[in-house]
Amino acid sequence: MEPRDGVPAVIATEEQLARVIAAFADGTGPVAVDAERASGYRYGQRAYLIQLRRRGAGTALIDPIECPDLSELDSVLAGTEMVLHAANQDLPCLAEVGLVPRKLFDTELAGRLLGHPRVGLGSMVENVLGFLLEKGHSAADWSTRPLPEDWLRYAALDVELLVELRDALYVELTESGKLEWALEEFASILATPPKPPRADPWRRTSGIHRVRNRRGLAVVREVWETRDKIARERDLSPGRVLQDAAIIELALNSPKTPAELQALSTLRGRGARRHQSAWLRAVTKARGLPDRGLPDSNLPGDGPPPAHRWAERDPEAAKRLAAAKAVVAALADEHTMPTENLVQPDSVRRLSWSPPADITPESIGTSLAELGARPWQIGLVSKPLAKSFVRLECKGEI
């Protein structure tokens, strides 16, 4: 309920930050790190509070808006293991302020590899360490200033026991023979470059499957891009400017006048109506596009088709996929972990759709490595997968 050293003051000046850097440089052991964002309120995924804790240094709560450059802190911690929970969520916003781990321990990923049924931070602290961790402000608007005392208490508690959790999980990983697997996973997270911007991000609009023609898709695109521009300019989460449901309703109804737009049920909120002229312009623009300017119904993919079409398009591939899924499920159960942590489902699909010409454990392993599988994963699955594919060939089923 309360950090052992009390709730620290927020670091918001260069002088205060210099003292934190000195203290953490003199500390010992891993550094617990967490970040709070305001993704449901503000545009983008920037951090609005960064929490750190290290033995001998205590806990620091840093305001990255007032102290946007943590590269000096990063330098003094360059050789130090950083402990994060669900690291992929926080690494991008930490990198924006110059904090980039060289050594990582991800307590959530460790929990998955160990087969913990619940891997949220609160659940793992309770199940592994026996403490009930006070939670309740994860969805708060962390861009609020000043931050309330109870929010700061919550933020400090998020790193209070993170190193202790790491130490306990390290023992579990060692005793279960999974430590090297975990270390490979942590190294892979750090070595994987950031994903490039998604092509046509408007296609991720919730409910877009209801829009069944290219003209309607053009409306989705134009309204989505208009919303994104307004959200960026106002530093607001796009959903607070206009909900996805409203974009879809605009695409399905294509209003021509302000009255028609205002009659739509999802356009009656104050936020949506504030920019109604912009939405109407976007719809009008989409309606006036020539056919050649309309978006394709689907983007060409670089992978296999959806699995539900395989039985018709390539029955042999469908049989390989069923066999591969059975193999992966059995191995995941044997090693007590989710199937997606044993091997990525996309890798299984791609391998089943386009297996190597000569199916051997080595060729399967090479294909998996090209798809991003780690050595420990390849060591576990390549031989059983090769056997299952060869067995299908020998039975004459493919």
From TrEMBL:
It comes from the Bacteria. GO terms for biological process: nucleobase-containing compound metabolic process. Residues 289-313 are annotated as: Disordered. Residues 213-293 form the HRDC domain. InterPro entries: 3'-5'_exonuclease_dom, Exo_C, HRDC-like_sf, HRDC_dom, HRDC_dom_sf, RNase_D-like, RNaseH-like_sf, RNaseH_sf. GO terms for molecular function: 3'-5' exonuclease activity; nucleic acid binding; nucleotide binding. SUPFAM superfamilies: HRDC-like (SSF47819), Ribonuclease H-like (SSF53098). This is Ribonuclease D. It comes from Actinomadura barringtoniae.
